[in-house]
Structures are given as structure tokens and as C-alpha cells.
């Protein structure tokens, strides 16, 4: 019996687009490398995938191709419907955990950016010359309304078309 050890360190389990996982799935699909015993043994369920959809697809593939999946951290052989249910519930927790980690990371990055003076949000679609013109008018002390009126009178359209308003001037500056 051939045994293949595939190590897939340093990659996020949020996606199956990882060399190690793809190699293991390809070996299982071919069936030629296994002497009758076709099993994917994983150290931790949440290292295989953190996606309920991907995990469900792996289970369906295993059933269709006739191989089994064992998660050592859980001690679960997923060859029965009940064991697949338990693993699926645990996979939902793993997916939730990944989302919570992502939200925490995003919030921490936003704090760091604010501390460095980087304003979060989309990049302005206002051409640089118009933004410079608005900045110059604001530096002269013109009100947002008077700047909007001047831009409208000059026929300069805002990025999304229509007319300039004090709020669109404020966002553009």
C-alpha cells in the first residue's frame, strides 16, 4: 500500500486552491497510487477547509469516487451520514471562526491606517485638476455651496454626472 504525506503549511484553509490539497484530491481521483485503500487522512478538519461549501463538495466527491475522509483531531471517519453531520457542524464553526478572525484583522488594519492618517474608503473618482481647483477655492474661504455653484456654472460635471452639491464638493476635496 502506498502512503503519501502531503504537507500544506502556510496557506489559508479558506480556499481549496492550495497545491497540497489539489495534489491529494488528484491522487484520490486517479486511484492508481493506492493499493485498494483510498483514504484522505487529515490532521485537523479546519486545516482541510474553512468553507462549508468546499467541505460539502469534498464529501460529495469522496462518496462519488469511493474514498473516505478521516479527521484525526476529531477522531471522525466520515463514512456515515451521522459522522458527516457532526463534521459539517464543526465545519460551520470553523467557517464562522475564519470570518471572525477576518473581521478582527480588518478592524485592526483600519485602526492602523487611521493612526497613519490614511482615510479609509474608496479612491476619489474626481480628476486631480478638479480636486486641486476645489482645494484652492476652499483655501480662499469659499463656502461649499458657492464652490458647487461655481463648478456647475463652469460646466464641470461631478464624477457620477448631474450637478455639484455641497456634500459632493466636501467628498471631492
From TrEMBL:
The keyword Ligase does not apply. SUPFAM superfamilies: Resolvase-like (SSF53041). Residues 1-35 form the Cyclic nucleotide-binding domain. Transmembrane segments: none annotated. It comes from the Bacteria. Residues 1-116 form the Resolvase/invertase-type recombinase catalytic domain. Coiled coil: none annotated. The keyword RNA-binding does not apply. InterPro entries: cNMP-bd_dom, DNA_bind_recombinase_dom, Resolv_N, Resolvase-like_N_sf, SSR_resolvase. Keywords: DNA recombination, DNA-binding. This is DNA invertase Pin-like site-specific DNA recombinase. It comes from Microbacterium murale. The lineage of its organism: Bacteria, Bacillati, Actinomycetota, Actinomycetes, Micrococcales.
Amino acid at each position: 500500500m502506498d502512503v503519501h504525506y502531503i504537507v500544506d503549511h502556510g496557506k489559508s484553509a479558506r480556499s481549496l486552491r492550495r497545491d497540497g490539497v489539489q495534489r491529494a484530491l488528484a491522487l484520490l481521483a486517479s486511484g492508481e497510487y493506492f493499493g485498494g485503500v483510498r483514504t484522505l487522512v487529515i490532521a485537523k478538519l479546519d486545516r482541510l477547509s474553512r468553507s462549508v461549501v468546499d467541505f460539502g463538495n469534498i464529501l460529495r466527491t469522496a462518496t462519488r469516487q469511493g474514498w473516505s475522509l478521516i479527521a484525526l483531531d476529531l477522531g471522525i471517519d466520515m463514512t456515515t451520514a451521522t459522522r458527516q453531520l457532526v463534521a459539517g457542524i464543526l465545519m460551520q464553526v470553523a467557517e464562522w471562526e475564519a470570518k471572525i478572525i477576518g473581521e478582527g484583522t480588518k478592524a485592526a488594519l483600519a485602526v492602523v491606517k487611521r493612526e497613519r492618517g490614511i482615510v479609509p474608503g474608496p479612491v476619489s473618482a474626481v480628476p486631480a485638476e478638479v480636486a486641486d481647483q476645489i482645494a484652492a477655492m476652499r483655501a480662499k474661504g469659499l463656502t461649499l455651496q458657492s464652490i458647487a455653484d461655481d463648478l456647475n456654472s463652469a460646466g464641470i460635471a461631478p464624477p457620477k454626472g448631474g450637478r455639484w452639491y455641497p456634500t459632493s464638493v466636501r467628498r471631492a476635496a
